[in-house]
Design brief:
- By secondary structure, this protein is α+β, with helices and mostly antiparallel strands.
- It has helices at about 1-20, 40-70, 85-100, 115-135, 160-165; strands spanning about 70-75, 105-110, 145-150, 170-174.
- Strands 1-4-2-3 form a four-stranded mixed beta sheet.
- Strand 2, helix 4 (about 115-135) and strand 3 form a beta-alpha-beta unit.
- Helix 3 (about 85-100) crosses helix 4 (about 115-135).
- The longest helix is centred in the N-terminal third of the chain and has 29 residues, at about 40-70.
- The model has no long low-confidence stretch (mean pLDDT about 85).
Length: about 170
């Protein structure tokens, strides 16, 4: 029994040593996020870039629409440019200067007034547009002024809506 007791003690001691001697395997701590998708900052940057792209496209579209517009309208018996046409004419002037293009400014009037008066009014309107183009850097040699008075209406009719469309200057590039 003494031997049995020694043997049991020895076995317990051996198990204790073996148990203490084995290391428990631990997983290394990984502080990197498990989500491999974009961060909040990256998403915000992507949204900002997309918004900037949309804004640039909208601005380019707006500018192209202004360049596609080649008619300036005037009030009744007026030869003073409305401020709404300033940016449009500035863009046309920049194009003319950059590309060396020439333009004929055709002044028109509605049917009211004498033919002589309407020819003079159409000319004053075309000269007002020419003056603004010169202000934006267009050379005199690039501009030709012509007046048609009431002779070339854009819209046939004898009412305010027709007359409003006929009081104009048209930019015709050569």
């Amino acid at each position: 029994m003494k031997n049995l007791l020694k043997l049991v003690t020895l076995a317990v001691f051996a198990l204790t040593i073996v148990a203490c001697g084995t290391k428990k395997e631990t997983q290394p701590v990984d502080n990197t996020p498990t989500n491999t998708g974009p961060t909040a900052e990256q998403l915000a940057a992507q949204r900002a870039a997309e918004e900037a792209r949309r804004a640039a496209a909208a601005e380019a579209s707006r500018i192209q629409a202004l360049l596609d517009s080649t008619t300036v309208y005037f009030g009744y018996d007026q030869d003073v440019l409305d401020s709404e046409y300033t940016e449009m004419l500035r863009l046309h002037a920049e194009r003319m200067v950059a590309e060396g293009r020439n333009v004929t400014l055709e002044g028109h009037a509605d049917e009211r007034g004498t033919p002589e008066y309407n020819l003079a009014l159409g000319e004053r309107r075309a000269k007002a547009v020419a003056q603004l183009l010169r202000t934006f850097g267009v050379a005199d040699s690039q501009i030709e002024v012509v007046s048609f008075g009431e002779e070339s209406p854009a819209v046939m009719g004898h009412d305010d809506s027709a007359w409003a469309k006929n009081r104009r200057v048209e930019l015709n590039y050569k």
